Amino acid sequence: MIGAQQVVDLALAAARRRGKADETIVLVTDRIDASLRWANNTMTTNGESTSRTITVISVVRRGADAHVGSVRSSAVAPSVIDELVEASQRAAATATAARDAAPPLPGGDVPVDWDAPVPRTGVDVFLGVADGLARGFRSADALFGYARHILETTFVATSTGIRRRYTQPTGSVEINAKRDGASAWVGRSTPDFVGVSTELMLDELATRLSWARRTIELPAGRYETIMPPSTVADIMIYLSWTMSGRGAEEGRTALSAPGGGTRVGEKLTSLPLTMYSDPTAAGLECTPFVAVPTSSERTSVFDNGMDIGRVDWIRDGVINALAYPRAAAAEFDAPVAVGADNLLMTGGSAPLADMVANTERGLLLTTFWYMREVDPSVLLMTGLTRDGVYLVEDGEVTAAVNNFRFNESPLDLLRRATEAGVSEVTLPREWGDWATRAQMPTLRIPDFHMSSVSQAQ
């Protein structure tokens, strides 16, 4: 493959040569993906792959209107570049006027590392994980799981002179252990696998499996429930995906106010919780500028290359901001707000063990899966518990219980939460393929709704 920087130059040159667009935006992402898998105490597969995605976005302006054509390809041959430019300009010429049209952003300085080679990763990054697993494979527990490490280097360039570049590391390791019909899961999110201790993960699995030596059946109902950070991340990430300013302004989301407008300024919880995204968050750093191939209600192709800063979506328990690209912000007279690819929430001072110790009777969850939206007007969600629901009695875990289907809204959970524990970096189980950078507290919910018993194991 030719270098990504050369792809950018060729695409912009082809756009100028054809001359059928007023502006051109080029995105190139080079991705290196390494993976390691194991099943039933045996390594099964490992490998590395390299891929590239090229997006050419053409903008044709006619008076106050702007028309956009966006064409994407995973082909790597240089000959495809001219074809992409032609297809993009042709699409823009026939497109309807873009609702999110905004003035072009000015150019700036070229990053000092613009011409540097794209960094790589490989299976060597898993050496520490593999060493720990080798010892774990000698135990009586059956271990299953996988680890992955992805490096994505994204280049954004425009005909107005913008040049942006960022390398995003994404890593995770998940281990599932089975013993006598019981199943337990642990997972870690990491940018580089430094400090990931397989031994500690295996110790945690052994503890959870020991809790399952005694099992009891419980009926559906409302239970005091301790939600660990992974479950909180899964449900709050979905909340963040729905925090579109346009959708709320137009009365289409749970963040719409009765009678018009939005719920910004409304107090959600008496706990002093702040939920925010921040591309500079330590250990959860992510792309600090907009780089999107198509527009959505939360992002716009017209904003490609624009800086992303910290946004407090909820501040001290109050809804503080919604997502507004530049065009929507101008239309609704709101601050521009674009979320980074991470989500954090502050918490309290109590570790999970102390919250369990202070529970007279309740449930301790592990993870959620198969989550779906049921009613967007109140953001009601359903899903299943997975890989360990435990009964807490008099401050101790005394048994494992059956799985449940739940029905809950993140907005309502925040309203009813009575305690928040320490905020910790966590791996969302349900959304881990799309959102691995999260830091969340444990939450205590006095009446979590387990709507039915699930037979899932």
Chain-wise SSE layout:
Layout: H1 4-18, E1 23-39, E2 42-62, E3 65-73, H2 79-94, H3 127-136, E4 142-158, E5 163-179, E6 182-190, H4 198-211, E7 215-216, E8 221-227, H5 229-241, H6 245-249, E9 275-277, E10 311-315, E11 318-319, H7 326-332, E12 343-345, H8 352-357, E13 361-364, E14 367-375, E15 380-386, E16 389-393, E17 396-401, E18 403-408, H9 410-416, E19 419-426, E20 438-454
Parallel strand pairs: 7-17, 8-13, 12-20
Antiparallel strand pairs: 1-2, 1-4, 2-3, 4-5, 5-6, 8-20, 9-10, 9-12, 10-11, 13-16, 14-15, 15-18, 16-17, 18-20, 19-20
Helix pairs in contact: 1-2
GO biological process, one term: proteolysis
GO molecular function: metallopeptidase activity
Pfam families: PmbA_TldD_3rd
Give an account of the 3D structure.
The two termini are 46 Å apart. It contains nine helices and 20 strands. The strands form two sheets. Strands 7, 8, 9, 10, 11, 12, 13, 14, 15, 16, 17, 18, 19 and 20 form a 14-stranded mixed β-sheet that branches. The chain has a six-stranded antiparallel β-sheet with strand order 3-2-1-4-5-6. By secondary structure, the protein is α+β, with helices and mostly antiparallel strands. The mean pLDDT is 96. The chain has two domains: 4-198, PmbA/TldD fold (2-Layer Sandwich), CATH 3.30.2290.10; 214-457, no CATH class. Helix 1 packs across helix 2 (79-94). One of its GO terms (molecular function) is metallopeptidase activity. This is Peptidase. InterPro entries: Metalloprtase-TldD/E_C (IPR045569), TldD/PmbA_N (IPR035068), TldD/PmbA_sf (IPR036059). It holds the Pfam family PmbA_TldD_3rd.
